[in-house]
């Protein structure tokens, strides 16, 4: 939604209606509940992609509770609750988003997935083992393997006791116990003789038994002998057998989950859209925004417009108006809105004023209002009528880098050329301090030529906002005298009686 503003008036109006319903006082408790549920789920497209790759464990230090299976389990459970909560909203019966949520979040797809995961994955054991473990009761074969593995300690104590009875009495004190290592198998542990570097006992006195030294660790030597090899043949590598069986079960679970992939993605997209609308509604309520009127007339009419971010960091913000009318293409206005306006409406506004007087903030403020209107949001203004806009073209910021073999002035020229080549009558063009990268007369000439080009487009003229310090443009009358061009400046109050030097910027457009 935020990445792709729309020019579909019906879609934009539908989002505005959804926001108005979400702002109803009698829906406050339900919206809070839905918000809490949305915070508990994730965008599961990434999790489904991980499943396709065969990855179910979280990477790095992320806990198992935030892994793929836990996220999918939570998504299935909480999404069903979101669907029920949406149905309780007052006045939402006719909203498209609500109908799509009710029909698009299908419990027949989500509940089986959630039950499969809950009945298969043992999250507590997975957390302790740092791998995906399977619940008891899923596979009789796996349960038997786990019982044998869990009973190894008692079993190996018995094996060690029997072995000690078979070896010579003098060597019994050196055989400590028997142990099992995954992939290595069963081993006999014998104390190390520090003088010889060998075990204190290596099978002496036993016929047909070779004690093969495997490795040394912590003052002990680990041997593979006939009895240990018999245990390897009888029980195998229990741990690896358990892991292999669990991998097989998890793979089957993954295949069955991916059968519902389309339904899960649809539900995720709907939850994301609902989350965006709730965020817009909460922002509209908190920052006193109003619903703009979207029209096919190529106009921008804003009363009491504010910059939604700048007003948060200043003690008081001065609201400003905007009125621009671009070309109509065929020479006639699209609607009757223009007839309600007094006199000629300009397509271009050129403003000047001292530094820090609010020129750049004003340009960005208008662009943000136009952008917010096209995603269906309320806007920070007392009233706004915004014509459909296809592009926001700017010459505001110059990003220099040592990796680019270009000067700041060359970058500015490229941005201006891009605006010239791709502007349409429905574009909004912002120009801030263009031409300052060269001498004053050349810069003033370049800016005048750029603005004159847009003015001469006639009925294909875009809406243009420009800010400049080039007073040569006004003194030498470099721009034509036309009703389509208006001038403005930021008010400054000069108080000659105060002892403090300097002027006071009022941040008001005049």
From TrEMBL:
A cellular-component GO term for this protein: nucleus
GO molecular-function term, one example from the UniProt record: ATP binding
Pfam entry (one): MutS_V
Database matches in PROSITE patterns: DNA_MISMATCH_REPAIR_2 (PS00486)
Keywords (A to Z) from UniProt: ATP-binding, DNA-binding, Nucleotide-binding
Annotated DNA mismatch repair proteins mutS family domain residues: 427-443
Similarity field: Belongs to the DNA mismatch repair MutS family.
Protein name: Putative msh5 protein
Organism lineage: Eukaryota, Fungi, Dikarya, Ascomycota, Pezizomycotina
């Amino acid at each position: 939604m935020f990445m792709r503003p729309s020019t579909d008036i019906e879609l934009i109006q539908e989002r505005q209606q959804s926001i108005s319903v979400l702002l109803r006082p009698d829906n406050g408790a339900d919206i809070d509940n839905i918000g809490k549920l949305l915070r508990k789920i994730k965008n599961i497209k990434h999790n489904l992609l991980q499943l396709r790759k065969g990855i179910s464990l979280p990477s790095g230090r992320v806990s198992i509770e935030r892994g793929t299976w836990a996220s999918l389990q939570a998504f299935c459970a909480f999404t069903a609750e979101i669907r029920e909560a949406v149905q309780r909203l007052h006045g939402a019966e006719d909203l498209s988003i609500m109908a799509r949520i009710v029909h698009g979040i299908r419990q027949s797809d989500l509940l089986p997935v959630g039950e499969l995961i809950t009945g298969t994955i043992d999250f507590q054991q997975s957390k302790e083992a740092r791998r995906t473990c399977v619940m008891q009761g899923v596979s009789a074969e796996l349960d038997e393997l786990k019982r044998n593995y869990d009973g190894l300690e008692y079993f190996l104590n018995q094996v060690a006791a029997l072995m000690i009875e078979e070896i010579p009495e003098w060597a019994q004190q050196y055989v400590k116990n028997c142990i099992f290592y995954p992939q290595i198998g069963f081993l006999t542990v014998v104390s190390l003789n520090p003088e010889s570097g060998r075990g204190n006992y290596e099978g002496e006195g036993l016929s047909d038994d070779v004690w093969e030294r495997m490795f040394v660790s912590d003052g002990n030597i680990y041997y593979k002998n006939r009895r240990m090899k018999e245990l390897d043949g009888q029980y195998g590598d229990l741990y690896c057998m358990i892991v292999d069986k669990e991998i097989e079960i998890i793979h089957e679970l993954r295949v069955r989950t991916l059968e519902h992939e389309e339904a899960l993605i649809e539900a995720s997209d709907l939850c994301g859209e609902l989350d965006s609308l709730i965020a817009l509604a909460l922002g509209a309520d908190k920052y006193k925004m109003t619903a703009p009127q979207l029209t096919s007339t190529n106009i921008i009419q804003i009363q009491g417009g504010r910059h939604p971010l700048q007003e948060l960091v200043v003690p008081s913000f001065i609201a400003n108006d905007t009125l621009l009318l671009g070309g109509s293409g065929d020479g006639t206005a699209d609607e009757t809105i223009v007839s309600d306006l007094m006199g000629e409406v300009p397509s271009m506004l050129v403003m000047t004023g001292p530094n820090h007087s609010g020129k750049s903030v004003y340009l960005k403020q208008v662009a943000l209002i136009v952008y917010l209107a096209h995603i269906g949001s309320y806007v920070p203004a007392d009233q706004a009528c915004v014509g459909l806009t296809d592009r926001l073209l700017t010459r505001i910021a110059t990003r220099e880098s040592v990796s680019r073999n270009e000067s700041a002035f060359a970058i500015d020229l490229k941005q201006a050329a891009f605006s010239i080549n791709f502007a349409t009558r429905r574009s909004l063009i912002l120009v801030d301090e263009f031409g300052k990268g060269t001498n004053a007369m050349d810069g003033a000439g370049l800016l005048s030529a750029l603005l004159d080009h847009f003015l001469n487009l006639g009925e294909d003229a875009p809406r243009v906002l420009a800010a400049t310090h080039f007073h040569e443009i006004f003194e030498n009358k470099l721009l034509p005298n036309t009703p389509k061009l208006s001038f403005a400046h930021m008010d400054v109050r000069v108080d000659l009686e105060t002892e403090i030097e300097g002027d006071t910027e009022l941040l008001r457009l005049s």
